[in-house]
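Fold it.
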Amino acid sequence: MAKIQDIRVIRSRPGGSWAIVKVITDQPGLWGIGSANDVHHAETVTTAIEQVIGPRLIGRDAAQIEDIWQSVYTAAYWRNGSILNTALGGIDMALWDIKGKEAGLPLYQLLGGKCRDAVPCYGHASGKDLEALAEDVQRWMEQGFPVVRCQLGAYGGGGFLDADSVSRPKNGRQMENVFDDEAYLENVPRMFTFLRERLGFGPKLTHDVHEHLKPHNAVTLSKLLEPHRLYFLEDVLPPEQIDWFRLIRAQCTTPQAMGELFVNPHEYVPLISERLIDYVRVRVSKAGGITPCRKIAALCEFYGVQTAFQEGGDNDPVNQAAAMHLDLASTSFGIQEENQFSEVERDAFPGAAVLAGGHLYPNDNPGLGVDIDEEKAASLYRDRAPSGTAQDRRADGSVVRP
């Protein structure tokens, strides 16, 4: 019986946003790692792990993952916050890593074994104009990605207008451009008309609204995109307005993906059980780790909803590995967001999943299969200014929710 002896965090990448949890047991050489990544609040999460949660777990049986998860989840009385979930998620992953190492098996074997040979991923295409975007989509397709996300530049692209070209308050703040819902409703469907005429309906295409629209315009966009047969439309609503999915579902069949910002079961359980979305996109660490995400995947199976666990450029190889193992062992898996790392980063995390031909491939190492070279990981750390708040604004100066 291995008991928890120490829990600490290794910070990596600029700003230390890669917060890797290391749970060390009293058995020589037996330890596990997990991801407590938070690009905006890494210091807060690290403090929660090392000074609050970690000390309470010293001496606990590392094999009792479910019991530890439940007791930590309720220990603070208030729960379902992003900081606590992330801290708990990092510890939970590390405990599953330990269990796999004790069993001498890759994590996907402990979760029931493979349902698929590898994990298909979607790529992220963008371009400053339609021609550049079409070329980028083809580039991702040539690399073997079965699904490609399409954006006109940054999030909200297609909806930005020159600030001097619109009516604004006389005392308005200095801005180069402003976001306009109606421009977005005009240009994004036009983007997909162009892509379908150029590429046909063979390619599977998605689009990320990134919660930029007012709810009624989210309904309109979903309807306008129906003829283009998207693989899914991502984050068309902010989490505060998810009740509008009922109206979207009543109006059209455009597949909906949602959940990047979800931390509370009251957000995703109704959407799954009422079949109001088609793909749930929580980040494994933000949901609280492998323990709750395998339950989310099981819930999806009964309601015909699929998983598309969130990655994104700020994420790390450890969270990616956790998502990949869940993908491999879940029959409700849909698609995985790709994330690529530099050679220097991969060198600091030996055993990181291999992304080739649009698919993620695990190794046969026990547990998560990814290790950490603490010295190399720490060397990636660089000071960075605190992350900013929401920057996109409408013509009157009000913030657009990300």
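The chain has a mean pLDDT of 96.
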